[in-house]
């Protein structure tokens, strides 16, 4: 009986150690904190060392997005386009990058389309599209292979106010806003479609969180991928989910947007910025 007890105890201890080691092996090292980025540093690259982590085995890469139904073309290279607000440019100020990352801005896409110059892609509507995270050229979207900017939106329905960790992979210049605030800016490509240089700690609020992801490309590979930590993907719902166009997307998120916290500081601030 004693031998049996000792064997059982040893088994439990070994299992606990194995689970602990497994957890450590897949834990994401957070190397960017203290966001969102202050306005004076919006175009400044991270000061921390790049992790150069392969996340190719991660199952949480986001594949479905909502955004313009075509890219901004002929951007003269990402260095030239990155400081410009191409959403402001294409909507005559009715929307901006900041306001587009809020509930009110997202709702406006139902009535406000984009009108870029013909050389930059022309008129764009809004739709749901799907990307292959393993494809290093998925930004092309049947358009030009080089010199373009792509915008993509997802909605995260969080069960409570919470910390989350987001992990982007991109080629080239990535910028990410959440709920009217900028959380990530990096002009350096990550090296591979599922290679991550920065795991960024971000704040999510209970209910709807609007994530706007922009990537500017010059030449060569063209990808923009994103996933969050396992816990966030376990407890939160991500949209688009089953929808495949604008109408079904808004039908899918209608309940989520309706319970968005009224008077949220970031939303209020973004609305003021948009109307001034």
Q: Looking at the structure, what is the overall shape?
A: globular
Count all strands and give the number: 15
What is the CA-atom radius of gyration, in angstroms?
20 Å
Domain tally: 1
Structural class, from helix and strand content?
Answer: alpha+beta
| Beta-strand fraction estimate | 25-35%
* Total helical elements: 8
Major beta sheet, specifics? 6 strands, antiparallel
Any overview of this molecule?
The chain has one domain. It contains eight helices and 15 strands. It has helices spanning 2-26, 78-81, 86-91, 97-100, 103-108, 230-235, 246-258, 265-275; strands at residues 53-54, 64-68, 72-73, 114-115, 123-124, 126-130, 148-158, 162-171, 173-178, 181-186, 195-196, 200-204, 207-217, 223-228, 237-239. Strands 3, 7, 9, 10, 13 and 15 form a six-stranded antiparallel sheet that branches. Strands 12-8-14 form a three-stranded antiparallel sheet. A two-stranded antiparallel sheet has the order 1-11. The longest helix has 25 residues, at 2-26. The radius of gyration is 20 Å and the shape is globular. The protein starts with a helix and ends with a helix. The model is unreliable at 1-5, 9-26 and 261-276 (pLDDT under 50).
């Amino acid at each position: 009986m004693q031998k049996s007890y000792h064997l059982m105890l040893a088994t439990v201890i070994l299992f606990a150690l194995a689970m602990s080691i497994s957890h450590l092996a897949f834990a994401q090292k957070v190397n960017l904190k203290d966001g969102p980025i202050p306005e004076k540093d919006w175009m400044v690259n991270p000061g921390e060392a790049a992790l150069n982590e392969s996340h190719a085995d991660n199952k949480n890469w986001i594949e479905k997005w909502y955004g313009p139904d075509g890219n901004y073309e002929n951007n003269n290279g990402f260095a030239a386009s990155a400081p410009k607000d191409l959403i402001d440019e294409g909507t005559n100020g009715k929307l901006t990058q900041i306001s587009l990352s809020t509930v009110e801005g997202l709702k406006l896409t139902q009535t406000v389309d984009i009108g870029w110059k013909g050389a930059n892609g022309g008129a764009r509507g809004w739709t749901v599209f799907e990307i292959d995270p393993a494809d290093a050229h998925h930004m092309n979207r049947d358009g030009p292979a080089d010199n373009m900017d792509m915008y993509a939106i997802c909605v995260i329905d969080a069960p409570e106010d919470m910390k989350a960790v987001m992990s982007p992979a991109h080629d080239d210049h990535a910028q990410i806003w959440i709920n009217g605030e900028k959380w990530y800016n990096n002009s350096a490509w990550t090296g591979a479609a599922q290679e991550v240089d920065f795991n960024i700690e971000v704040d999510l609020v209970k209910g709807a969180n609007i994530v706007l992801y922009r990537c500017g490309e010059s030449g060569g590979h063209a990808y923009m991928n994103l996933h969050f930590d396992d816990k966030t993907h376990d407890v939160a719902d991500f949209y688009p989910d089953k929808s495949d166009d604008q109408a079904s997307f808004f039908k899918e998120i209608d309940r989520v947007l309706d319970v968005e916290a009224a008077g949220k500081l970031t939303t209020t601030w973004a609305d003021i910025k948009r109307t001034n």
